[in-house]
Amino acid sequence: MINFLIKLGSIDRKIIFLLIALSVLIPLLYPNLIELPIKVDKNTEIVFNSISELKSGDKVLLSFAYGASTKPEVHPMAIALLKHLFAKDIKVFIVSLWPESPIMANQAIKEIVDTKLFNLTEGIDYALFDYKTGGFIVIKGIAENFREVYKQDHNGTLIEDLVIMNNVYSVSDFNFVFDFSAGVPGNAEWVQYACDPKKIPLSSGCTSIMVTDAIPYVESGQLRGILAGMPGAAEYEKMVYDFLVEELNTNSNLNNDSLLTKGKAFSRMSAQSVAHLLMVIFIILGNLSYYFSRKKN
Amino acid sequence: MSYNFEIIGVWLLVVMTLSILSYLYGDNPFYKAAEHIFVGVSAGYIFAITWWDQVWPNLFGRLFPSYVKAGFEFDTLYIIPLILGLFMLLRLIPSLSWLARISIGYIVGMAAGLKIYVFVNSNILMQIKNSGINFDESIWNILNQFLVLIGVISGLVYFFFSKEHKGVIGKISKIGIYFLMIKFGASFGFAVMGRISLLIGRFEDLINYSSEQFYFATPIIFIIMIVFLFVWSTQNDNKEKMN
Description:
The complex is a heterodimer.
Chain A: H1 2-8, H2 13-29, H3 42-52, E1 59-65, H4 71-87, E2 91-96, H5 101-115, E3 126-131, H6 136-144, H7 146-149, E4 176-181, H8 187-198, E5 202-206, H9 208-219, E6 226-228, H10 229-247, H11 264-296
Helix pairs in contact in A: 1-11, 2-11, 3-10, 4-5, 4-10, 6-8, 10-11
Chain B: H1 5-21, H2 29-63, H3 65-68, H4 79-89, H5 100-130, H6 139-158, H7 167-208, H8 217-242
């Protein structure tokens, strides 16, 4: 047994790649094979409750700062949040801080429009703004004077001509800011340059790798909860889905003949959990192998 | 002749994804080509979008408002960023490259000035304020806050190098190490989770594009790549043997 464990330590890495690939592929091909329950995290619940407290007509600024490489983690959060906001008749303003973000924002809006769940009009219910380079400079600009940074929406319509832009001059005119990020600029920049100085509630949905750096802001209340990677997205999707099912027949903002779906992150969680389980097994076996090989030498 | 750009896009997506994943087998021509295309396309895309979304409307829109029509009025102050921008480009001319230092100096100075206040405010003052214990909360919350406070103090003591880590300081810094190790462990766990999420995203696309609707893009390209890699590696082995 000990010799077997020692041999495992020198296993060809291609076998490990293959096992990881299978652990992801099989649950994706057969989603009903392994169904693991999803427990909603406290931080996801804080995000959901913060959005639920907003009233009809409130204004929410969404910052898209992610691209194709991090789409599987962050995009499902954006879809779920947009559904939640539009169901509450909240006005949505989307700014893009990464070069690929306008594509992500357009895809997210298109996906929402295609569900036919809401009756949305661009320029009245939502507005999209193009990518601006500069990172934290853009965030600081939005905090001070939105209209100095953006003169037009992504269609080239002057913001003076947009109904949704009435009484919007700086970040202080928004009731909530939500950041979707996968790096810099991200939630830290929104905390530092806009929401802390102007005291505007902020929340974030970010990639897993950013979570440990963002948690101090959550613990201190500078961020109102956080959607942490794919599990955070799946939990939020589940909460929004349950909310929409409950509201479908009573909420006038929803078209009740539309089909409700849970979302992509939810269906991906089995693959995520199986791959993690395999990783844990690898770590345990690797440590045992290392321990016994050192003992033998 | 009409082209279905969606299908072309899907096939390109599958080729690029499988080419990048082929690195798991080893360095090969597919991976190298995909890597170079990725770098080139990214640079080109970022250049184009920065020019048309930022430089053109925000700079030239203020210098030539009637021509650019970006909604801005003429502003003489914007001649300064134009000059600083041109100075940056002068790095390409060795005899004038020193002028770029003025622009870099401006960027560094401006960023440092902006950063210092917000960092002190959000990352130091507010974090210190919120590290305090609120005794009005439940016993579990008080315990949690107490644990955070111990972690903050012991972690900071670990990075205090003006006194030798012996005695009380040594013991506190050791506690700090444990907190730091837990943080690094959590970071590693989250990093793994992130990478697996990306793999799921790629696999999901590959599965979706295996269907008849997309002319079996994934299986066809996968088989072609395996055949090519087999031939390529056999030829390489023969070359090595001959040498």
